[in-house]
Amino acid sequence: MARLLFGLGVAAVIFTIYAVADCAFFDRTRIRGLRRGWWIVVILIVPIIGGLLWFIIGRGRANRVGPSRGGAIAPDDDADFLRRLRTDAEQDERIRRLEQELAELDADDTKGSGPGRAPGAATPPDGTRGSDRKRPDAPDAPGEVGPSGRPNG
Q: Per the confidence metrics, is the pTM higher than 0.70?
């Protein structure tokens, strides 16, 4: 008799631990009746009955979309599919607009570049170009010692 009671006690503890763990890790949107914390309190205060109540009342069923037979639904009836189509179309339109803007920018860059200039190179405010400009760290005349200590020129 003692072995039977001990076995039933162990089974009750295992069932209670399983019910608490199931409640703690169950999807919050599918819990019915009470909030998760209250369900855990009920399971722990009334071990066997609390666990049974959790599995019968608190544990909601999975949300089923579509026919009850479990078959596939048509794409035009699937809201997620239609939403993805709309998002894909918006992304395609945005990509098309960005590509058009890039093409216009490329066209503007090639119009403004002269001979020997890279596309997109801007003319400095002082009007000098590329090699005409003097570097600020260069010596004034050829042959003078530059910042590296070697003669320039």
A: no
